Amino acid sequence: MSKERTDLVKAIKEKGKTIEAEMSFFDHLDVLRGHLVRASIAIVAFTILAFSFYDFIFDKIIMGPGKTDFWTYRMMCLATEKFNLGADFCVKKLSFNIINTELGGQFTLQLNSSLMIGIVLGVPYLLFEIWRFVKPALHENERKSATGFVFWASLLFIVGLLFGYYIIAPLSINFLSNYEVSSIINNQITIASYFSVVATLTIGAAITFELPIVIYILSKLGIMTPEFMRSSRRYATVIILIIAAIVTPTPDLVTMLTVSFPLFLLYEISIYVSARVAANKKKAEIAFYKND
Questions:
Q1: Is the pLDDT of residue 97 over 50?
Q2: How far apart are the first and last CA of the chain?
């Protein structure tokens, strides 16, 4: 009888722990939902703002890299005059016309591009909400080491966004629009195709610039080490050059190196970040064993 009673008490305790764990899980889900709702509200607000000022956004920002008076092209022409880089380096024409082939194409463009701009502008706040959700689960030393996560992640995202918009996108548009298989072919480019190229290259560069943050997280988890990254540097070099060749499909070596240089720099920064994480881990282990 006492054994049955003991088993019953044990079962009740285990059931209580299970219920408590389930409640804790749903509490965390509820908290996460709150953070995501606030981030979504911010994105919607930015989307409405972009939709309201769309004339300026479309003419000056979206169509910017498709015009010869764009800042990047003007700087290339100034560099050509100053350093005698050759007539081909100065962009004087972009051989394509923008067209729309769908009845609702222009409205869809405004809606989709406004939403994309809203998401891009809302990324820093989204990162802030993610940090607020993760922060309570971290230990004090982990919180200190992760201080500045939102700032650095947002800064890298913005720098990558600017690099993609002012360097990668215009260089790619220049090459692709002026590339000819035959002179009888006219480039009639749909606005959806043009916007897709600009958005993909710009946002792709912004995401790529988050590499040091990704390496930091992987290093904290013990998945990535500086020794591995140093030993893989030659493979990383080949991959970076391939990425640069794909992103800027141009035979110009200067252009490819211009695109690949920040990627090399990001890789070296990532090695430094991983090495710092490893050094801090080693110091913490030494201090732990000394205290014992």
A1: yes
A2: 47
Residue in the block written with tokens 């285990």: 14
150-169 per-position pLDDT tens digit: 899 999 999 999 999 999 89
Residue 147 has pLDDT above 90, yes or no: no
User: What is the predicted pLDDT for the residue at 14?
Assistant: 55
Which residues does residue 119 pair with via DSSP β-bridges, in sequence order?
A: none
10-35: average pLDDT:
60
What are the backbone dihedrals phi and psi of residue 270, each rounded to the nearest 5 degrees, phi first? -65, -40
